[in-house]
Design brief:
The structure holds 3 protein chains of 3 kinds. By secondary structure, chain A is an alpha/beta fold. Helices cover about 40% and strands about 20% of the residues of chain A. Chain A has a 6-stranded mixed β-sheet, sandwiched between helices. Chain A has a 4-stranded antiparallel β-sheet with strand order 2-1-4-5. Chain B folds into 2 domains: about 130 residues, no CATH class; about 80 residues, no CATH class. Chain B has 9 helices and 2 strands, in the order αααββαααααα. In chain B, strands 1-2 form a two-stranded antiparallel ribbon. Chain B is flat. Chain C has a 6-stranded mixed β-sheet with strand order 6-7-8-3-9-10, sandwiched between helices. In chain C, strands 2-1-4-5 form a 4-stranded antiparallel β-sheet, with helices on one face. The termini of chain C are far apart. Classes of the chains: A alpha/beta, B mainly alpha, C alpha/beta. Chains in contact: A-B, A-C, B-C. Chains A and C meet through helix 11 and helix 12 of A and helix 6, helix 10 and helix 11 of C.
């Protein structure tokens, strides 16, 4: 599989601080992969996103080491706007990333800046709006939309630039539960429809396990763990020590295992848990005197 | 439309012109079904100012010409002064109501599209639209910050006007900080959408001038022309004042 | 535990300008020492209700009585002595140049003696590990620290009841737990805590009592275990109980109680069923 993103020995320090926010990070992401990044606040997740999208180093002052390559572009050697074409980004705050006065304008904004011809913009708007299921709200103004709707518009706005990579930095942290589900279902739909590479920074591990291929645990600017989902949560103690929650059903599995119960694999989702634990409880019931 | 009417009202010197203009504005207000509550602020502020100026115009301005309506010792109330005040009142009400009409009837988006259609440079349009967008956001922040400080015992209802206003400094500080953060986030969002202040870009949404728009603009331009001519060149209108 | 009612609403109705009915005849009693969570979708009226507790909003009709005082006609500054309100975004509150100033701000507004203020501030700095930041500008702190400063600045006014609006937005799990532990400690010391949240896991683990709201009315007001065992109520309001509770409910035919609220509880229950087989 082709490697979409290659990060080599990346380190970054902001001009205003003495700490290395990112410390010798090396990893790659395959084309079409869904990588989740998790970690406590201050671990460097947002800074990593900014580096992957080229905003660091172009928009921020500081010290850079290492390299980030998206596709075939080295982020240091290309303009922020060239990189912006390949990497779409969705930020945390639904309010401040909504720049224009209506949904349609917002989705058109990116392609307009790239001087895409008008008919093409129209097609892209339609396509993106359909993917995020906002096609009935095109003429609405931002103040008429819920948080979840605004974030979906932000995703559509990024998709309209037809990027190869979509990075989402904690897109649901300011949303209510309905909004959170809306965003996750859009991501699921997106995976199904397009072969776009997705990087999602998120705390909500119970949802991540339903979507991601691999998860990365960042702590203090370093990669503590990077593995496929099935194996990632075996490291329960390490994950908890670095301030990241694990799905409750998985935590339960871990506690049961430590008490000597035989569990072949730790369940990650509710469905897996019901299967695994019914098995355990059911067997017991049959053998009760 | 607003610009033209404001221009008319503010430049006219004749009561005969101002009167009908005000009537026209009121007609527009009624036709556009503007809720009266939005005019309340304008009415109150201007009304208050006019009451003060009434006193100034009538009592404190010396009567230089025309009939004197009332005399009490040193104070004189002259007809001409009274009419001058009336003219000012009409002009200000008309101008402010028509502005209210603009703000209430036009969707913010259309104001900006209108500017774009007149080939105002994109960066200016973008700044205008950002300001309008942020106005709503900042006012929410303002109210939240005010409530937050009230919950810490800051009383905005007691004390002299000065003390009360100075307490708003405590609201201003968090507001400033929150706004700076937003600006950083906005600029990141703009960069991620390849925003360039100048340079080639496509405009997706446009509004077209409809025939009705053209007619209205034509009619109003004619009106403006007549008013200016009447004011400065014509002698046909009686009751010129000042 | 005393059952003195500290907050009471009677037929509380609130209509916003523009005619939006936010609260519809709410009757609620909160007793001293309660640890209550108010949950519901956005727009259900949770924040509107909470803002009546310190007078930020006044009833359109009905009454709200807080610590014996009718909210109608009482200045917010007075009510804030008894009821502290912590806002969702700490940045909306921070308005001074040092952490020490920030903590002193509230009590100073209430006219507390300077010596008393000083001692309260020093104690809070110590207890909440903020001593090193005493002279730091609040806006230079991390978001988690800013939230702690915001909470402490309310605590400095020593209110008996504390209302916290969405303490977990923008926080990671560990920070959210820190805030909740803080509230738990305060509750153990006799404070009444009311918090609004979307995070069902925290509700399950901390709130003894949960009030569920929908479209301006209270649809359920009971112990947290009861609330999470009532799937119809929750489905109606589109809220789901924490994952572990959902698991317990799907396994109830094996003898698992439906009102399980934590992983620890579930572990104990399951071990009791499975262990005899192993031993």
């Amino acid at each position: 599989m082709k490697r979409e993103i290659i990060v080599q020995n990346l380190s970054w320090r902001y001009a205003t601080s003495q700490n290395w926010v990112l410390d010798n990070i090396t990893f790659d992401v395959e084309q079409g992969e869904f990588l989740a990044i998790t970690g406590a606040t201050g671990a460097g997740k947002t800074s990593l996103c900014l580096c992957l999208s080229g905003m660091i180093p172009h928009g921020y002052n500081g010290v850079w080491k290492g390299s980030v390559t998206i596709g075939s572009l080295d982020t240091r050697e290309h303009d922020a706007s060239d990189i912006a074409q390949r990497v779409g980004m969705v930020f945390q705050d639904p309010e401040s990333q909504f720049l224009t006065m209506s949904v349609e304008d917002e989705i058109a904004f990116g392609p307009e800046n790239l001087a895409v011809p008008r008919e093409e913009i129209g097609r892209r708007i339609h396509d993106a709006a359909e993917t995020v299921r906002i096609d009935d709200c095109l003429d609405r103004a931002p103040y008429e939309l819920s948080g979840g709707q605004k974030q979906r518009v932000a995703i559509a706005a990024a998709l309209a630039m037809e990027p190869e990579v979509l990075i989402l930095d904690e897109p649901t942290s300011q949303l209510d539960p309905v909004g959170k589900l809306e965003v996750f279902s859009v991501l699921k739909e997106l995976r199904r429809k397009k072969s776009i590479t997705i990087i999602l920074v998120e705390h909500f591990t119970e949802e991540i396990v339903k979507h991601a291929d691999r998860i990365m645990l960042l702590y203090d600017g370093r990669i503590e763990l990077l593995d496929r989902i099935e194996r990632f949560f075996e490291n329960v103690d390490l994950i908890a020590a670095k301030g990241v929650p694990i799905p409750q059903v998985t935590e339960l599995g871990h506690l049961l295992r430590s008490a000597g119960v035989n569990l072949s694999s730790l369940p990650l989702t509710l469905e897996q848990a019901v299967d695994a634990y019914s098995g355990l409880l059911g067997r017991n019931r049959n053998e009760q005197p | 439309m607003v610009a033209v009417l404001s221009f008319c009202t503010l430049t006219t010197h004749s009561l005969y012109v101002a009167g009908p203009l005000l009537a026209l504005v009121v007609l527009i207000v009624v036709l556009a079904k503007i809720p009266l509550s939005s005019l309340k602020v304008y009415t109150m502020v201007i009304g208050w100012l006019l009451m003060v100026s009434f006193v100034i115009y009538t009592v404190f301005t010396p009567v230089t010409s025309g009939t004197v309506l009332y005399r009490y010792g040193m104070l004189m109330v002259g007809l001409d002064n009274l009419l001058a005040w009336l003219l000012v009142a009409m002009k200000w009400f008309a101008a402010s109501y028509i502005t209210a009409v603009l703000l209430v009837t036009t969707k913010q988006r259309d104001i900006v599209l209108g500017l774009r259609a007149w080939k105002v440079p994109y960066i200016v349009c973008f700044i205008a639209s950002s300001i309008l967008r942020q106005l709503a956001v900042v006012s929410v922040d303002f109210f939240t910050a005010t409530e937050a400080q009230m919950s810490r015992g800051l009383d905005f209802k007691q004390g002299s006007l000065f003390t009360r206003l100075s307490r708003f400094v405590r609201v201003g500080i968090p507001l400033l900080f929150v706004s700076f953060k937003r600006m950083e986030e906005m600029s990141n969002a703009m960069q991620s959408r390849a925003f360039k202040p100048t340079g080639r870009r496509t405009t997706y949404s446009t509004i077209r001038m409809k025939t009705s728009d053209a007619l209205v603009m034509g009619a109003l331009s004619a009106l403006a022309f007549i008013v200016v001519w009447a004011t400065y060149f014509g002698t046909a209108f009686p009751y010129r004042i000042g | 535990m005393s059952h003195e009612v500290v907050i009471e609403t009677r037929h509380l109705t609130h209509v916003y300008a523009g005619g939006v009915l936010a609260l519809n005849h709410i009757d609620l009693k909160i007793e001293r020492g309660n640890f209550v969570a108010i949950i519901g979708q956005n727009g259900s009226g949770k924040t509107t209700l909470a803002k009546h507790f310190n007078g930020l909003l006044k009833p359109t009709s009905g009454e709200v009585i807080v610590h014996g005082t009718n909210v109608e006609g009482a200045p917010i500054a007075d009510l804030s002595r008894k009821v502290g309100y912590v806002f969702q975004n700490p940045d909306h509150q921070l308005c001074t140049t040092t952490v020490e100033e920030e903590l002193s701000f509230g009590p100073r507004n209430l006219g507390i003696e300077p010596d008393e203020i000083k001692s309260r501030v020093l104690r809070l700095l110590r207890v909440f590990n903020l001593e090193e930041y005493r002279e730091t500008h609040p806006f230079l702190l991390s978001r988690a620290d800013r939230l702690r400063v915001a909470v402490c600045s309310i605590l400095a006014m020593e209110p008996e009841t504390i209302v916290v609006d969405e303490p977990t937005t923008g926080q990671d799990m560990r920070q959210s737990y820190e805030v909740m532990e803080l509230l738990k400690q305060l509750n153990e010391n006799g404070h009444t805590i009311v918090f609004i949240t979307h995070n069902m896991r925290l509700v399950a683990e901390y709130a003894r009592r949960t009030v569920v709201m929908k479209q301006g009315t209270i649809v359920m007001d009971d112990s947290t275990a009861e609330v999470f065992s009532s799937p119809d109520i929750l489905a109606e309001t589109y809220l789901s109980p924490p994952q572990i509770t959902q698991l317990a409910q799907q396994l109830d035919r094996y003898g698992i109680p439906r009102g399980i609220l934590s992983v620890r509880e579930m572990n104990e229950v399951m071990q009791k069923i499975i262990k005899p087989r192993i031993d």
